[in-house]
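Homework help board

Subject: predicted structure for assignment chain

Our instructor gave us this sequence and asked us to write out the predicted structure in token form, then describe one feature. I got the tokens but I'm not sure how to describe them. Can anyone check?
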Amino acid sequence: MIVFHWVSIYVKKHTEEKHLNHSVIFSYSIPLLEKILVQDEKVFSLTDNIHNLHLKRRDKRKNMSTATGYLSMFLAVISTVAYHIFQRHIGKSAHPLLSAIVTYLTAIVICMFLVRSFPFRYRLGEEIRNLNWASLGLALAIIGLEVGFLLCYRTGWQVGTTAVVSNSLAALVLLPVGAIFFSERISSTSFLGVFLCIAGLVTLRYGN
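My token output:
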């Protein structure tokens, strides 16, 4: 429609100015139409190339995101296993809070070295302002986590069941929390997972 609109404007303009007959009008129209069609084909070809490039980049980002997600879960699993093994080996005479202090002082030093590999996006002051109350709340949760697991092992809990019981109970609590406070959807698969968690807890309870 745009092509023929341009042709009609061109023809009308030259007809009014030069009073051309139909044959002359036709001779003006055909070359112009061919030129416009060629230009349109180039534009459409460029548009298709840009669209295809956008799709390729989107697929690449999606694949990278999926790979990063699996690697992150792998890191979390390995770290969780190492966490419980190290917790189990902390001496019974060690003070729980002093042990936590040494642990997180060491973690702070390691993080300071890792900052070079993961540099700040903004200035340090702005990065600090981007933090919120959740960082302080996480500190309280971490203290409870460290002391809680350490005391569990000291009171006779086994490495093979402690993580399973704690993670299953946490999942049962976090499922409604996610739905209420974070608008996460609870599917039928989620309910099946809840049932399996409860069944696993019962099996561990009576299996021991």
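Reply (TA_rk): Your tokens look well-formed. For the description, you could write something like this. Residues 91-157 form one domain. That's the kind of observation they're looking for.
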